[in-house]
TrEMBL record:
The keyword Transferase applies. It comes from Ignicoccus pacificus DSM 13166. Belongs to the phosphoglycerate kinase family. This is Phosphoglycerate kinase. Its EC number is 2.7.2.3.
Length: 411
C-alpha cells in the first residue's frame, strides 16, 4: 500500500452537510429473504452514529449479493435491522438514483439517515472499470451533486472498481469511515517490519488464494513462519513428495489442487519458512475416526492431529503478530473442529496481536467466547485475500487520488 495516510472522518467537518456513505451490508440471506447474520451491518454502526451525532444528513449506499444469485435482494430488511441497531428510525427508498431517491436525498435533514436500495440493481454498478470511467456513470453524475462529502466504509468491497466505490471519490472530497480506517490500520501491522516475529496460520478450502498470499508474503519477507493446515497443507505435503493415499489424492485432483503442486514445490525449494502438519485426524470407509501420521495416511483427512496442534501452538506462542485465515479442518462436523479451535485459542492466549479472516474462524471465536481478546477480525472476504496477496485495492487507490485532488492529504 502507498505511504500516504488516507484522510478520515477526523479531517472533515460534517455538521449540516450531506454525506454519501458507502457501506458493505452484504449479508447471508435465508429462503424467505431474511438476514441470517447482521455482523456486517453492526460493523458500520460506529461510523453512522458518529456522522449523525456530528450533525450530518447520512445517505447510505450498499450492495447485496450478485445479479442472478438467490441473495440478490432489496435492502429493505437491512433498513429494519439498521434501525434496531441505531435505536433510531432509518428511512428507506426503493430506488437508487431515480427521481424519488433524489427527492428523498434532497429533503433529508441533519441527524437523519436514509438507506438507498441495492446499488447492484443498476447495471453499471456491476461493471469493474477504472475511476476515470466510473466517474462518468449515471449513478455518479446524478447523485454526486447532491452531496458535500463521500465516505467509504466498505472495506469488504475495496477490491472492486465499481462506480459506488471508485467513481464518487473522483468528484467529491472523500475520506475513510471508521470501519475502513480500523481495517487499514490493523492490516497495515502485517506489513510493518518493526513488529516481529509474524506467524501466519493458513488453511481452509480456498487453496489458490492462500497460495497467492504465501507467494506475496514470501517474496516480501513478511512472514517468519507459515503454518499450513486444511487443504492447503495437503498440497504442500504432496509437493514434498509425500503420498497421502488414494482417497485424499482423488479429492485433491477433483478440486483441481494437484495442478498447483509445481508452484508449491517452487516455494518450498526457495527456502520459504513453510511448516506442514505432523499428523491428521482421518476417517476411513467404515466411518472410523483415527489419528494418523502425515507420512502414513490411509483415511480421508478431516482435521490436523494432536501432535500438530501442540507443535503449531508452541510456534504461535513466540509470535508478536498472528494472522489466521481458513479453518484447519472440516469444522462443520464437530468431530473435526478441535484443530481449528485449539489454534485459535493458542493465538488468543499468546499475547500477540491477532488478525483473523473468514467466516469460519469468526464462528469459532464466538464459540470460544474469546471475542474480547481479539486484535482484529476483518470483515473482508475477497478484499482481505487481495490485500494479503499484495494487490492494490481500488477503493484505497481512489481515496488517495481524491485526497490529492481535494487537498485532504495527510502525510
Ligand atoms: N482438510 C480439508 N479437507 C476438505 N475440506 C477442508 C479441509 N480443511 C478445511 N476444509 C474446508 O474449507 C472450508 C472453509 O474454507 P474457506 O477458505 O472458504 O474459509 P473461510 O474463508 O473462513 O470461509 P467463508 O468464505 O465462509 O468466510 C470449509 O468448508 C472446510 O470444510
Ligand atoms: O462479500 C463480499 O466479499 C463483498 O460483499 C463483495 O462481494 P462481491 O464479491 O460480490 O463483490
Amino acid at each position: 500500500m502507498s505511504q500516504l495516510k488516507l484522510p478520515t472522518l477526523d479531517d472533515i467537518d460534517v455538521s449540516g452537510k450531506k454525506v454519501l456513505l458507502r457501506v458493505d451490508f452484504n449479508s447471508p440471506v435465508g429462503d424467505n429473504e431474511e438476514l441470517l447474520d447482521d455482523s456486517r451491518i453492526r460493523a458500520h454502526v460506529p461510523t453512522i452514529k458518529e456522522l449523525l451525532e456530528r450533525g450530518a444528513a447520512v445517505v447510505v449506499v450498499s450492495h447485496q449479493g450478485r445479479p442472478g444469485e438467490s441473495d440478490f435482494i432489496t435492502l429493505e430488511p437491512h433498513a429494519a435491522k439498521l434501525s434496531a441497531l441505531l435505536g433510531q428510525s432509518v428511512q428507506f427508498v426503493e430506488d437508487v438514483m431515480g427521481p424519488e431517491a433524489r427527492r428523498r436525498i434532497k429533503n433529508l435533514k441533519p441527524g437523519e439517515v436514509l438507506l438507498l436500495d441495492n446499488v447492484r440493481f443498476l447495471a453499471e454498478e456491476n461493471i469493474n472499470a477504472p475511476p476515470e470511467v466510473q466517474e462518468k456513470t449515471y449513478l455518479v453524475r446524478r447523485l454526486a451533486k447532491l452531496f458535500d462529502y463521500y465516505v467509504n466504509d466498505a472495506f469488504a468491497t475495496a477490491h472492486r472498481s465499481q462506480p459506488s466505490i471508485v467513481g464518487f471519490p473522483m468528484v467529491l472530497p472523500s475520506v475513510m469511515g471508521r470501519l475502513m480506517q480500523k481495517e487499514v490500520e490493523a492490516l497495515s501491522k502485517i506489513f510493518n517490519p518493526k513488529v516481529s516475529p509474524k506467524v501466519f496460520v493458513l488453511g481452509g478450502g480456498k487453496v489458490p488464494d492462500s497460495l497467492s498470499i504465501i507467494e506475496n508474503i514470501v517474496e516480501n519477507k513478511v512472514a517468519d513462519r507459515i503454518l499450513t493446515t486444511g487443504l492447503l497443507s495437503e498440497l504442500f505435503l504432496v509437493a514434498k513428495g509425500i503420498d497421502l493415499g488414494e482417497s485424499n489424492m482423488k479429492f485433491l485432483e477433483k478440486k483441481g489442487i494437484l495442478s498447483l503442486v509445481p508452484k508449491a514445490r517452487k516455494l518450498l525449494l526457495s527456502g520459504a519458512p513453510i511448516d506442514v502438519p505432523l499428523d491428521f485426524v482421518t476417517v476411513d470407509e467404515e466411518g472410523n475416526v483415527k489419528v494418523e501420521p502425515a507420512y502414513n495416511v490411509t483415511g480421508l483427512i478431516r482435521d490436523i492431529g494432536p501432535a500438530t496442534i501442540r507443535s503449531y501452538s508452541e510456534l504461535i506462542k513466540e509470535a508478536k503478530v498472528v494472522v489466521m485465515r481458513g479453518p484447519a479442518g472440516v469444522m462443520e462436523d464437530p468431530r473435526f473442529r478441535k484443530g481449528t479451535k485449539e489454534l485459535v485459542r493458542a493465538a488468543l492466549e499468546s499475547g500477540a496481536f491477532t488478525i483473523f479472516g473468514g467466516g469460519h474462524l469468526t464462528a469459532v471465536i464466538e464459540e470460544l467466547g474469546m471475542k474480547d481478546r481479539v486484535g482484529h477480525i476483518s470483515t473482508g472476504g475477497g478484499a482481505l485475500l487481495a490485500f494479503l496477496s499484495g494487490k492494490e485495492l481500488p477503493a484505497l487507490k481512489a481515496l488517495e487520488i481524491s485526497a490529492r485532488k481535494f487537498g485532504l492529504i495527510k502525510g
